[in-house]
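Pilot study result, target chain (542 residues):
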Amino acid sequence: MDAFTTIISLFGGLGLFLYGMTMMGDGLENVAGDKLKSIFDKITSNPLKGVITGALVTAIIQSSSATTVMVVGFVNAGLMNLYQAAAVIMGANIGTTITAQLIAFKMDFLSPLCLAIGAMIVLFSKNKKTKQAGSIVLGFGILFLGLDLMKDAMSPLADSPIFTELILKLQGKLLLGILLGAVMTAVIQSSSASTGILVALAATGALPLNVAIPILLGSNIGTCVTALISSIGTSKTAKKAALIHLLFNVIGTIIFIGFTGPLASIVQDITPGNDAESIKRQIANAHTIFNVLNTFILIWFIKPLVALVNKLIPGEDEKEAMGVKYIDERLLETPVIALGQTTNELVRMANKAKENVEIAMDAFIKNDEAKLKKVYENEKLINILEHDITKYLVKISNTEIGEEQKSVVAAMFHVVNDIERIGDHAENIADLASEKMAKNVDFSDDGVKELRGMFDYTMHSLEISIECFREYDKEKAAEVRRIEDRIDSLEKELRSSHIKRLNTGVCNATVGTIFLDVVNNFERIGDHAVNIAEIITEAQYN
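Predicted structure:
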């Protein structure tokens, strides 16, 4: 096999390996579904829980880089502090060793079987969950097929005097081995793939353990490049999270530089032997032991690590007055998480619209011009959120999501529009308050009492509607509908009582017009509240 054919076969195998790993990770992610979101939702300041979270999520999505990118996104959105992020990142480094452990097993005979079974399930199954399970099996087969192809491509290297000489030069050159591992992983953007190459080389008998360990250490540094790139253009806090990832692996590598010999002895004691299969297992174990021990050592120093990062990147973020808080482009790596965060952003937008209705009504009753300005400021934010959330929903719909998620995304497009319209009605009430102040109009006590009564029903409807959407509670949708029926009845009652006041001369035509316009806006807000609550009955959300 000539050099060109070797390189093509190697990259072809690497491509299959990465594709299989992605397919397997996507399948696991889809099967996990909302459980994956709930894992992140339960993160606390407890470092151990953070480590477990990072390890579990990375084991599911098969990429520590993807997990770290998500963490950067969470930190950028203000959903996770640096202490929590540091623990999750440490766990992600442990989770990524699962792939190395899998590929170290001698499962060559399973590859064709997994390809056959997985392909048949994906092609012929009609059940969505079964198809996802088939994707996991198929991805597993493709991963091992790629590994076999890489091993076959590199088998001539075992007899190559040039390669043997290169390996001899690397022996004892720890820094050179670390640099090689870092560069290789930075280029491939996957420490699992780098480890896969090392395992494939070891399977040919061409790579001794004492050369592989420094390259493994370097691969942990190289995998930080993805998170560092993803932090460009983010908040200072998000950049700090990416830097924590880098420092964690650099400090760990520095600690272990002087202990590569003992590390090699430990893994050789666990799996004795100098044959290719033993070295494969030793490499996988070295990868796992390094990351577990590094986490065990540094988990006690999270506070000093965060303090160091704060010194390296001084200052706090300037809080933006306008813009989204929960959604982030980086979260699109895992659509289930992105969808959950969009729900949070929509709830935030809905609460902002609800708050604006309250402020507008307060301004109307008290003739408060300062509160009118607040309504108009909030309306600008609501419009920005409507634009940004809609764009984000389009991006989610273009990712690999299931039918249930597509149904939820479609419902969310309607919810965004309804919330934006509620904001418009709040602005209308503010305009009416401005008109009332400009014309020095006074309302009768009965008129004010009636408006307050309808306002209370409207706010109650909005509050339950938001809860209904946030919790996807279909029972609460019926309650919103009952309140809306009462609001519709009140509109008719208030129109009737207002006409009586006009006829008796208690109020004039100008007061009457403003009064009826406010009532009409309340009724329309109630309609939109019902839309938001009932849209979940149309979405196929479990």
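One observation from the pilot: The mean pLDDT is 81. A full batch analysis is planned for the follow-on phase.
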